[in-house]
Every structure is written in structure tokens, then in C-alpha cells.
TrEMBL record:
GO terms for cellular component: plasma membrane. It holds the Pfam family BCA_ABC_TP_C. PANTHER family: ABC TRANSPORTER ATP-BINDING PROTEIN (PTHR45772:SF2), CONSERVED COMPONENT OF ABC TRANSPORTER FOR NATURAL AMINO ACIDS-RELATED (PTHR45772). One of its GO terms (molecular function) is ATP binding. SUPFAM superfamilies: P-loop containing nucleoside triphosphate hydrolases (SSF52540). This is ABC transporter ATP-binding protein. InterPro entries: AAA+_ATPase, ABC_AA/LPS_Transport, ABC_transporter-like_ATP-bd, ABC_transporter-like_CS, BCA_ABC_TP_C, P-loop_NTPase. Keywords: ATP-binding, Cell membrane, Membrane, Nucleotide-binding, Transport. The keyword Transcription does not apply. It comes from Candidatus Propionivibrio dominans. Residues 9-253 form the ABC transporter domain.
Length: 255
């Protein structure tokens, strides 16, 4: 018997426009807990705009986003992270001058310490063994243990993307938004990222935006196709691959 899943995220008729241009036009989709859900579509389809709206970087002009039973309309980005919704970015965002381990310890520290009500923030995190131990565990999860003492700027592009995933995991997300995690990677680095996502899929729900179709069809439990700001199809990979409208609009039957 297959595992029963529950709805974790529901996007209901979300629209976002910039002047007279609609980046999202009544887009709707549903994510179930425990799945890797890929969002694909041509350039300009609105994929990154939707990620921005979900994370709180941009407000929706219309529609609703319901996450784990919470309406996110008036929730700031940090409140969404606290609820368990976290994201990565197309462009790596790290403290490049700090060591790899220090990047992760700072991320863990920001979650476990109450900055507003305690002076414990000023205690050096190097003296807090629980924080450092968790940081080491996160580095092990993304296969960066041997690079803990290097500066982040010394890592390869692929290693930096893995480090960024560790920072996001430090928030203990229920839903991980991955915005083109393989962008700019060579073949070997892409394989490594695919393997990392497969490993993480056992413990966290993901919404994956990615242009590498081989990776998408390997990783995704379900796929939604965004064209012109609207979701035109959503289903299992085999269903999406066979959908005539999807093939015509995006997968390129005419090529």
C-alpha cells in the first residue's frame, strides 16, 4: 500500500503583475507532504516569480497561498521560515570570507537562539558545542565535511551550491524551495547535486524549479508546467511527458 500524503502547500489562483505584464495569471498548484514536485516552463513563464511569492520576497496581487494550514498573505519572509518554508536562490548567497563551518554555524545559531530576548547571541558560537555539532552534521549531509576549514570563496561553484543547501537545511524546513540548483554547473557537479536532492527527498518536501529535464524526470514525483503565468498541467512525470499540450508548449515536439 502506498504512503498516504497530505496537502502541505496550496496555491490558489495567484496573480502577480508588473505594470501591464502578468508574470503570474491565476496560477494554482498543490504540493503534498513528502514529495519532490518540479515546476517547469519556458523562460519568462513566471517560475521564479512564483518562488518569490511563496517565500515572501514579493507580495501576490491576488489569490491565496496556504502553507501547512497557514494563510501566508500577511506573513513576512522570516515568519515563513519559522513556519518551515525555506528557499535557495539562483545566485549563491554565502559569507564568502568566512570558513565553510562558520557559515553553517551562523545559520544554526540564527535558528536556535532568541536574539530579541537574550544576550546569549553574544556568546561565541565556537563555544557552543551543540551548535557546532549540528553544523558538522549538516556539512556531512551535503558531503562537505572535508572542506569545513576552507573559506567559502575557495569552494567550486557546485560546492558553494551544496553549502547553500546546508544553510537552508539549518532552518529545519518542512518545505524546501530550490530555484535552479544546477544552474551554471558542469556535468559532474550536476550529478552530485541530483544525488544530494535524492538523499534529501527522504526527509523534506521540495518544490524544484529546474531547466535540466533529465534531472527533473529523474527526481520529481509530480510535475507542474507553468506557461504564460498559468499552470497548464500537473501530474506524474509519465503523464506530463505524454501530454500533447505540454509537448507543444514546452517540451518541443516541433524540434
Amino acid at each position: 500500500m502506498s504512503e498516504r500524503r497530505t496537502t502541505l502547500l496550496e496555491v490558489r489562483d495567484v496573480s502577480k503583475h508588473f505594470g501591464g505584464i502578468y508574470a503570474l495569471n491565476e496560477a494554482s498548484l498543490v504540493l503534498e507532504s513528502g514529495e519532490v514536485h518540479a515546476l517547469i516552463g519556458p523562460n519568462g513563464a513566471g517560475k521564479t516569480t512564483l518562488i518569490h511569492v511563496l517565500s515572501g520576497a514579493l507580495p501576490a496581487d491576488a489569490g491565496q497561498v496556504i502553507f501547512d494550514g497557514n494563510d501566508l498573505a500577511r506573513r513576512a519572509m522570516h515568519e515563513r521560515v519559522a513556519l518551515g518554508l525555506a528557499r535557495s536562490y539562483q545566485i549563491t548567497n554565502l559569507f564568502s570570507r568566512l570558513k565553510v563551518l562558520d557559515n553553517v554555524t551562523m545559520a544554526v545559531q540564527s535558528r536556535v537562539r532568541d536574539w530579541g530576548s537574550s544576550f546569549s547571541f553574544w556568546k561565541p558560537f565556537s563555544l557552543d558545542s551543540a551548535i557546532v555539532d549540528e553544523a558538522h552534521d549538516l556539512l556531512a549531509q551535503v558531503s562537505l565535511t572535508g572542506l569545513a576549514g576552507r573559506r567559502a570563496s575557495q569552494l567550486s561553484h557546485g560546492e558553494q551550491r551544496c553549502l547553500e543547501v546546508a544553510l537552508v537545511l539549518a532552518t529545519k524546513p518542512k518545505l524546501l524551495l530550490l530555484d535552479e540548483p544546477m544552474a551554471g554547473m558542469g556535468p559532474e557537479e550536476s550529478v552530485r547535486m541530483v544525488e544530494l536532492i535524492e538523499h534529501l527527498a527522504r526527509r523534506v518536501t521540495m518544490l524544484l524549479v529546474e531547466h535540466d529535464m533529465d534531472a527533473v524526470f529523474r527526481l520529481a514525483d509530480r510535475i507542474s508546467v507553468l506557461v504564460g503565468g498559468r499552470v497548464i498541467a500537473s501530474g506524474e512525470p509519465a503523464v506530463i511527458r505524454a501530454d500533447h499540450e505540454v509537448r507543444r508548449a514546452y517540451l518541443g515536439d516541433a524540434e
